[in-house]
Every structure is written in structure tokens, then in C-alpha cells.
UniProtKB/TrEMBL annotation:
Record-linked Pfam families: Fpg-like_C (PF21218)
Taxonomic classification: Eukaryota, Viridiplantae, Streptophyta, Embryophyta, Tracheophyta
Residue intervals of the Formamidopyrimidine-DNA glycosylase-like C-terminal domain: 19-34
Domain of life from the UniProt record: Eukaryota
Record's protein name: Formamidopyrimidine-DNA glycosylase-like C-terminal domain-containing protein
């Protein structure tokens, strides 16, 4: 996950659409990548 994040420059817009990474801000304590 870290390597992928660095590979896209930590730009959430470039993460695969099936990742739930961006929902972590709306659900504190439940950050995860599906």
C-alpha cells in the first residue's frame, strides 16, 4: 500500500477506484483499503 501510494505521488485521485481509501476521513478509526 505504501509503495503504491508513493508511486502515484500520494494523490488519492490516482488510486484505483475500488479502493475505499478516501472514506477514511468520513469514518475516523475505520481507515482501510478494500
Amino acid at each position: 500500500v505504501i509503495e503504491k501510494a508513493l508511486a502515484v505521488g500520494a494523490d488519492s485521485n490516482q488510486f484505483p477506484s475500488n479502493w475505499i481509501f478516501h472514506f477514511r476521513e468520513k469514518k475516523p478509526g475505520k481507515a482501510y483499503v478494500d
